TrEMBL record:
This is HDOD domain-containing protein. SUPFAM superfamilies: HD-domain/PDEase-like. It comes from the Bacteria. Pfam families: HDOD. Residues 188-391 form the HDOD domain. The lineage of its organism: Bacteria, Pseudomonadati, Pseudomonadota, Betaproteobacteria, Candidatus Accumulibacter.
Length: 391
């Protein structure tokens, strides 16, 4: 079987929250549905089974009825170009869709009008914004509203995201929100600075009483910390009642990773929920990718590297300014400043998974000795982890 790497895009709604994920299977040339089905079957056991939809795209490879050999999970949505439904093999695909009735997203193209009358029920209608003007998108959104929920794909900028919503789209897929906007501030604000102080105290194994006194300066910090630790993503068997309880149950090292979440909560950016979701996914993905490759004692540091990788966008402060205020290990700082070091390859692979270049993903995975199957499964596990968090 050809190695098939998967990349992802988040779908962001009007409330600036990630409500679904779009997975693209890079099937290569030649690629076929057998490779697609085998790749999807290999995700059994790690498929994210939450309520959030997961869109499946086969990229540039034409789909056929054999794609339905995959036992489609309830939250999976198959993306199908209209041209595929109207191709010579389209009748078999239409019959299979009508029999198994998976959720389907119609990719709008010049043959979409005919595809909409094919007898297939569509849950979504997807528009690649690189192919349409905003005027066209507004018109097509209105005309297809009765056929499915309109979503936009490949949105590159925050302005394009807002324009898609104005044109009638329910959500838009892309990484437009990860790029810092505006002029970076020179210093952290008071709330951010206090969280950094707490983090530095924990990292230096300060007395619990001193840390508790720092937490009392902002009651909301304590509340948020306990909420994150008790979320489904953490998987504890009992509820943590206080900071002292957290220390006794987790120890300072484990607690440090969850305190790192608090710095992100100080963000005033309207895209903060989407940014935090993405940061947590990166954090967990880096930790999983490193399993068996680095000592377990460094897993928390890898997690924190991923968690802090979007701090500049979240806080509106340059990454160098953020790191100057924190006492972080050198490998974390080096990776966050793109200066290399032993954590850099893991961050580079996490970032590559958010792109659309299968060659780059394969090269980065190869540098770490990871197969496509290992990489893809780690992505699904990280996706489940982020889904379980409460932002």
């Amino acid at each position: 079987m050809t190695e098939v790497f998967i990349s992802r895009q988040p779908l962001v709604n009007r409330q600036r929250r990630i409500i679904a994920t779009r997975l693209t299977l890079h099937l290569g040339n030649p690629g076929n549905m057998h490779d697609a089905v085998s790749t999807l079957h290999a995700l059994d056991g790690v498929w994210p089974l939450g309520a959030k939809p997961v869109f499946i795209s086969c990229g540039r490879t034409n789909c056929d009825a054999s794609l339905l050999n995959w036992s489609t999970p309830e939250n999976a949505t198959l993306e199908l170009p209209a041209a595929v439904l109207l191709s010579p093999s389209g009748a078999d695909l239409i019959a299979a869709l009508q029999t198994w009735q998976p959720a389907v997203c119609l990719h709008f193209d010049p043959q979409a009008a005919a595809a909409l009358s094919s007898g297939v029920q569509f849950r979504f209608v997807g528009f690649d914004v690189r192919r349409f003007t905003l005027a066209q998108l507004r018109l097509l959104s209105a005309r297809t509203r009765s056929h499915g929920i309109g979503v936009a794909f490949n949105v590159d900028t925050a302005d394009d995201f807002q324009a898609c919503l104005d044109a009638g789209m329910t959500a838009a897929a892309g990484w437009f929100f990860t790029v810092p906007t505006g002029v970076p501030a020179r210093t952290l604000n008071a709330g951010q600075a206090n969280i950094v102080r707490v983090l530095n105290l924990v990292r230096s194994n300060a007395d619990i009483r001193e840390i508790e006194d720092a937490l009392k300066l902002d009651v909301a910090i304590s509340y948020k910390l306990l909420r994150y630790i008790n979320s489904a993503g953490f998987g504890l068997s009992c509820e943590i009642q206080s900071f002292r309880h957290a220390v006794s149950m987790l120890g300072y090292d484990k607690l440090n990773r969850w305190l790192s979440l608090l710095l992100a909560t100080a963000s005033k950016d309207p895209m903060a929920p989407a940014l935090m979701y993405t940061a947590m996914l990166r954090a967990r993905l880096m930790e999983l990718l490193a399993s068996g490759l680095v000592d377990r004692s460094e897993h928390d540091s890898l997690f924190i590297t991923g968690a802090f990788s979007l701090l500049d966008a979240l806080l509106g402060v340059g990454m160098e300014q953020v790191l100057e205020a924190m006492r972080l290990p050198e490998p974390i700082c080096d990776a966050l400043l793109a200066k290399g070091g032993r954590y850099q390859p893991f961050l580079d692979l996490a970032l590559a998974s958010e792109g659309d270049d299968a060659k780059v993903i394969a090269e980065q995975a190869g540098m770490l000795g990871l197969t496509a199957a290992q990489f893809n499964r780690a992505q699904m596990q990280a996706l489940s982890f982020a889904d379980a968090m409460e932002f």
